[in-house]
Every structure is written in structure tokens, then in C-alpha cells.
Amino acid sequence: MLRRQFSHDTGKKELARALEEFDRRRTRSLNAPSPIQQFGPCGRIMKNSAMVMQIQDPASQRLTWYKPPLTVLVIKKVHDATILTPFVQLVHWLVHDKSMVVFVEAAVLDDTLLAEYGDFTSVRERLMTFRAGTDDLTDKIDFIICLGGDGTLLHASSLFQQSVPPVMAFHLGSLGFLTPFEFNNFQEQVMNVLEGHAALTLRSRLQCVVLRKSNDLTKDKKKPTTILVLNEVVVDRGPSPYLSNIDLFLDGKHITSVQGDGLIVSTPTGSTAYAVAAGASMIHPSVPAIMVTPICPHSLSFRPIVVPAGVELKIALSPEARNAMWVSFDGRNRQALQHGDSLYVTTSVYPVPSICAQDQISDWFDSLAECLHWNVRKKQKQMDEMSDMTHSSSDTLEELESNHHDERPTDT
């Protein structure tokens, strides 16, 4: 769904009709856009009769295959020598033991250190390669395996701007909030996924459309830019010394003007990234919501808010803004937005189906505890320990009172 960019001659009426058509075509339900149920050529959510108001219970979302998966995309963290051995082991097992077609980025094979692995030579010739941004992987990949940190999952998301195959992420990076699997017994864990024994977390993404102001002199029609992001869209003041002055609209209604360093619009998955560092709450990825978090606002009362996932946000420079605003998508594609440009953000119908190591609840709270040390403190003492301390204190107090009583002068 792309917004058409009109030249000056088309007029405001046609632009308004186009915006109305965009709103009408948005797939919406009670709480959020209805996500697709199929992921890649052969992955989908298992049908379950446990429905509440026609909304499937997120805890019942499980992966199933309606035909055996044959192709796998392996995403490897680049410039990290510690990932090479697990990468070679995984690819060798997938090709020789499971007879699967393995896709890797061409840049991965450019690593000269791979030549040190003698058994990789026979595998290398059987790998399928592609280049990000050039080759289209749509309907070619059955599922994805990520080796590295959270950045590998973000990269996998960026490769698929529509339906995303199921993603299995191994923790081989520095943080690992989104990578629940350990690599020590990867064969058993991958087999569980291939056999369809896996829970899913549907991580919603944001559909971002950048509309540029047309040049009235040349009457250029600038094609809108559409990007899907997994974590957040960040709008900031860039290198300017002035405060950003940004107008925020929700479903066409002006909500507020942001004066400060900028604004973060994030998914629930992104709530534990930049947003939480800026003071936002942490939201479970299954909650249908969009988070709006100011960055260093010049107002003590400007607190982060959570809005329904089905709404559309519009972000534009205020007429009195002194400088342009800069926008980045999951930390990439950073670009400036001038007066007259607009950024539209809503929830995409194409989520990232993230495969759980245990289940939705266990994986998320384990990540909170292990990666962010959520609510870590020393335990309170038990009552018997407190009783001993109180008893000792009482004895000491009685002795002091007795000594004080003995030292008082007698009446004459």
C-alpha cells in the first residue's frame, strides 16, 4: 500500500482522496491490523479453535508446515571471528545431513578466514548466494536461522518487506534479547522446528511511508518511500543546535507538538530498545500497540504514551520549526525531512514470526532477567533472622535501661 505523490497541478482534492483510499485499504480489526497467517512458502500458524472475540489467543500460536521446508536462509553476524565455527558447523549439517538448500549473503563468503576450515570447501560450492538490496528473496526461503546478536534479527526483517519466513535466532552476540536459542545443541533444536514443534511470537512491524513535497517548478513526482521496521522509527533534530519542533497527528487529528531532541515511535519489540532508555515502559511483543516516546522533551509533563496498533500516525515539521528533522528506521536509512515532507506510520500486516525456545512468556521474562537484570535486588531477610536481631536489640535496650536506673541519684 503506497501513497501516491502528486504534483502541484493535481490539487489538494485528489491528494485528499488518495489519503482516504489509503485509510480505507488499511486492514483493521478491533485492536490492530490483522496479521497474515502464512510465513514464506510453507510456514503458517496452526489453526486453533480457542478464539476470543475472533482474536486468537497469542499463547496458542504455534508453527506448522503444510509441506516440508527445503530452503533455509542463514544470517551470520559479520566481522566476528567467533561466529565462524558455529556457522561452518551449522551449514555443513544443513547441507550434508539434512539435504537442504542453504542461502547466505555473498559478503559472508568473502571472509578470508573461512579458508582455514578445510571441510567448508565442499559445502561452499553448494551454497546459494544473494546480495541485500539487489536480489529478491520473496517466496524463496522457507525459514531463517540467525547466528549472532539482535542485529541479525533486525537485518533478517529488513530483507523481507512483505511476508517474513519463521525466524530461529541463536544467541551468539553481546546482548541477545531477541535471540533465545543456545547453540550447544543446535541439531536437536533445529530438528524440533523442522518437525513443527515450536511456539511463535508474532513481532509486529511498523509500516513507514515517507511523502516528499513535490517541486512546483519542475513538477517532479517523487515516488514515496515505504520501509518496514521491527524496532522503532526515530525522528530527531540531527546536527542542528535548535530544538526539534514536530507536529504529531493521530488518525488525522493533531495531538501535540514535540519540542525537544526528537521522538521515538516503536513497536512492543522495540520497547526494550531505545524507547526504554528514553523512559518508556516495556511491553510484551504480543500486545497490539504503538509506543510514542519523546526524547529529552522540553516539558516535564510530556510522558510516553501507548496507542492502539490500528491507528495511523503522521509526523511533520511544524510551520515555525527552525530546522529540518532527521529520521532513521531501525538505525538505518537515515535521511532529512524538510518543510512539506510527511512521515506516516502504522502497524504492518506483515509481522516477524519469531520462533520461541520455550514459550512467549518464558522467553520474554528470561530476556528481561538475563539481559536487562530487571528487578534484581538483594533478598529481604526472613522473619527468624529478624527475630534474632530484634531479640538481641531488646536485650541491649533492657541492659541500658537497667544501668541508667541504677545510676540515678536517690531521694533524700
TrEMBL record:
It comes from the Eukaryota. Residues 382-412 are annotated as: Disordered. Keywords: Kinase, NAD, NADP, Transferase. It holds the Pfam family NAD_kinase_C. Its EC number is 2.7.1.23. GO terms for biological process: NAD+ metabolic process; NADP+ biosynthetic process. One of its GO terms (molecular function) is NAD+ kinase activity. Residues 401-412 have a biased composition (Basic and acidic residues). Gene3D superfamilies: Probable inorganic polyphosphate/atp-NAD kinase, domain 1, Probable inorganic polyphosphate/atp-NAD kinase, domain 2. Belongs to the NAD kinase family. This is NAD(+) kinase. It comes from Galleria mellonella. The gene is LOC113515976.
